[in-house]
Amino acid sequence: MPTSAPRARIAPPGPDEYGASYADYVSRVPAGTDILDLLERQRESTLARIGKVPESRGAYRYAPGKWSIKEVVLHVSDTERIMAYRALRVGRGDGTPLPGFDENVYAPASGADAVPLAELAQALSDVRRTTLALLRHLPPEAWTRRGTASGAPVSVRALAWIIAGHEHHHVEVLAERYGL
After folding, report:
1. What is the pLDDT of residue 5?
2. Phi, then psi, of 70 in degrees rounded to 5
3. Are 119 and 71 in contact (CB under 8 A)?
4. Cα gap 106→74, rounded to integer Å
5. What pLDDT does residue 9 have?
6. Alpha-carbon distance 156 to 135, whole Å?
7. What's the CA angle centered on 76, arms 102 and 16, to 5 degrees?
8. 74-to-29, 80, 99, 154 alpha-carbon distances in Å
9. CB proximity list for 166: less than 8 A, separation 6 or greater
10. How many Å separate Cα 95 from the centre of its chain?
């Protein structure tokens, strides 16, 4: 079976490749990171963390009006789905401006608390696997293609960094606010 050629490391995005609202997520990815390797390692570590949470804690909210653990997990999946879809569209050269989304509408409408936590964790794993399959097979020139999403410029590589940084942010929130 033939092996594929080694892939070149993808350079991080510049600040002109994403909207200011995503700067915190992008900054959470350490300099010199192999983004595809990080995304794979995150999948494993986040699933291990969620796997330790008993089902009885899945609907836990650290304060009234805050998302439950299950809603946080589903939010990470939903956001990654949207960012990966954007990466597909932009990576394939589709210049159609892509709309934003309101995560504060998604969470309560998701029904996450009625889904077993193990199923939400498996869905998150599945989403990450499909994101990685998409990103691993992009031609080199696709990584720097730019489009517009949520009214701001965005490149494919910025979307990969946003996905990683967004998950990192929510894993920190789970640790700090939910004791995970």
Report:
1. 47
2. -60, -40
3. no
4. 9
5. 85
6. 9
7. 70
8. 22, 10, 20, 24
9. 25, 76, 79, 80, 83
10. 22
- Rg from Cα positions in the chain: 17
- Give the integer Cα–Cα distance in Å for 26 and 60: 29
CATH 1.20.120.450 describes domain 36-178: yes
Distance, CA of 68 to CA of 92 (rounded, Å): 36
Query: 76, 166, 77: which is closest to 127 by C-alpha?
Result: 77
The rounded Cα 164 to chain-centroid distance in angstroms is 5
The string of pLDDT tens digits covering residues 105-156 is 999 899 999 999 999 999 999 999 999 999 999 999 999 999 999 999 999 9
| pLDDT higher than 50, residue 2 | no
Domain boundaries, the chain: 36-178
For residue 92, give both structure tokens.
Answer: 């394939």
Which pLDDT score, from 0 to 100, does residue 6 have?
52
Residue 147 in 3-state DSSP?
strand
pLDDT digits (tens, 9 = 90+) for 27-62: 999 999 999 999 999 999 999 999 999 999 999 999
Contacts of 179 (CB under 8 A, 6+ apart): none
